[in-house]
Amino acid sequence: LRLVTVVRAILDGEKAAVLKRDHHLPLSFHRRQEELKFSLGLQRLQHRVREIQALRDDGPGRDGAAQSPAAPKDLPTLILEAVKELEAAKQQVLKRIQIWKRQQQLAGNGTMFEENLAPLQKRCENLVEVYFQLQQQVMAASTELGPELLPRLLERFSEVLSSLVKR
């Protein structure tokens, strides 16, 4: 038990040293890390859209009755997961927009400010592109989604787009 206590104390010290060191990393490192997280989320979202497309293409009406009952159940679940990921990606974009606005405000006080909006614009364009692809898949699958789920999804879609446009 004493050995475990000593090893734990050493590991806690190492953890504290790493955390202390990471707080002093350059801002570009944190920005790059955030950009990678967004890219990964966007790729995951694009993969979901392709999965929905493949499920719709291979869904009911093909290969007999064995696949037919499973496809309508899986499709709404897959679409809901994709919409949730779309909303998470939207939150990341809105967070970056808020950071940019705050940096612009602080620039009035003499703080360094990077005025380049190209990365932020690229994020928005990529997100809106995936948004329209997903919305197209949802509209194409409207018969499988049912009358209660489709209006909720369309409302969530309009909220995503309106919040992006307003900000």
Describe it.
It is a single chain. The protein is mainly α and 167 residues long. The protein has one domain. 81% of the residues lie in helices and 0% in strands. It is built from six helices and no strands. It has helices spanning 2-22, 27-58, 70-107, 118-140, 142-145, 149-166. The N and C termini lie far apart (56 Å). The model is unreliable at 61-72 (pLDDT under 50).
Helix and strand layout, with pairings?
Elements: H1 2-22, H2 27-58, H3 70-107, H4 118-140, H5 142-145, H6 149-166
Apparent shape: flat
Structural class: mainly alpha
Largest sheet: none
Written as H for each helix and E for each strand, in order along the chain, the element string is HHHHHH
**Annotation field: number of helices:** 6
Count of separate structural domains: 1
Observed structural traits:
single chain; 167 residues; 6 helices; flat; STAT6 protein
Brief synopsis:
This protein is mainly alpha-helical and 167 residues long. The protein has helices spanning 2-22, 27-58, 70-107, 118-140, 142-145, 149-166.
